[in-house]
Design brief:
- This protein folds into two domains: about 5-355, Rossmann fold, CATH 3.40.50.12780; about 360-450, GMP Synthetase, Chain A, domain 3.
- The protein has an eleven-stranded mixed sheet, with helices on both faces. A four-stranded mixed sheet has the order 18-17-16-19, with no helix packed on it.
- Helices cover about 35% and strands about 25% of the residues.
- The chain contains 13 helices and 19 strands.
- It has about 450 residues and is an alpha/beta fold.
- The N and C termini lie far apart (about 45 Å).
- The longest helix is centred in the first third of the chain and has 22 residues, at about 40-65.
Amino acid sequence: MKTSWYEKAFSRVLYPLWESGLRRRHTLAYLADYQRDQWLAPEQIAALQWQRLKRLLEHCEQKVPYYRQRWREAGVAVADIRNLDDYAQLPVLTKADIRQHFDALQAEGWHDRVLTKATGGSTGDPLRFGYTRESYERRTAVMWRGYDWAGSRMGRRTLFVWGGAVGTPHRLQQFKDRVYNAAFARRVLNSFGMTEANMAGYADAIDDYRPQVIVGYVGPLVRLAQWLLDTGRRVAAPRSIIGAAESLHEFQREIIERAFGCPAYNTYGCREFMLIASECERREGLHVNADHLVVELQRHPGAPATEPGEVVITDLFNYGMPFVRYLNGDVATASDHVCSCGRGLPLLQRVDGRLLDAIRTPAGHLLPGEFFPHMLKDVPGLVRFQVVQRRLDQLELSLVRGPGFDEASLAYIRRELAKVVGDSLQLNVHFVDDIPLTPSGKWRVCISELPAAPAA
């Protein structure tokens, strides 16, 4: 892709002036390191990760009251941790632990360097957490690296289909936002206001701005893409689309790519760490930022490596309020594939969604949310769906039907589900006119309202 004069000016002059000169941040230096490290061999990245992990664990044992006490009670000393198997024996950190021990999780002597923010709490459990300036700068650098793989570069014309500001910002803030977005060559469309009635306005905005890259919540992107296909409307095609904030299922990727005429890329992140993994140009899996984080998949004892696991994350550079073996509530599936791009960063095969989006059966099986898009993608006449589990022995399936959906379609759904869960789950089907986005602007295809299972 040809680099525009503005991209060159922004990446070489404007952004360094802003980030390094005015803000005195080290983001660009960290980005240079991460850009270099991604090409190390897998064993070299693993060695680098281990070196950084050991240093963090020693810091936690010496400086963080919560870990010092918790690990002592568990009979674990950092000096005895010699490999990742030993490390995996450390207790996990939960959201409840953070709420209860917020102050004790902050490193002694670092309190004046800890900044705070909160997660949005889309599942009803908002969380306040701390981070340091260095960890933020490194997260930003990792974000630039991962988005660059999908063609989103500094100064490249980008349109965001994103969540809007809460309330009405005052005029000065609105002016600052306009200047900031203009400088970064970006425009933001508020996905929270998206309805079937105003889709044409979003399409018009794309034609007006003609972005080279579109970044957005997956749900609104799919809704807009489906509207484009249904109406036959064509828009100015970007070079790439990046799905963020929620899992991009393969059936959704297909809809987006058909509507916009360009490749769609999957990313995985959360507010506590920002970008965790993302697809490169080869799209053979999501590269884990293993030079910046430790990502584990926790499964039940004896479970095969091909089974999805709960995501457990350690930030290697947040020394002010370290998150060590943090359960973030997501489920993912590992990959043993080596990407043909040549990067040594390991891969996730896919992100299955939040643990709260996984369906549990009376027999104790965990059915990832990815199952339902995969199973329902070939049902004739199915426009949209949502699965909700409120009882362990029942599923509620809401369906938006289009032409072609008939009794055979419904029989197929019941038959395919029974192949996996047998008769352990009763399926209740509801035909509805629409399935709205959540208040946070996302489209959840699978929801579990069951109490969370206790951590292993």
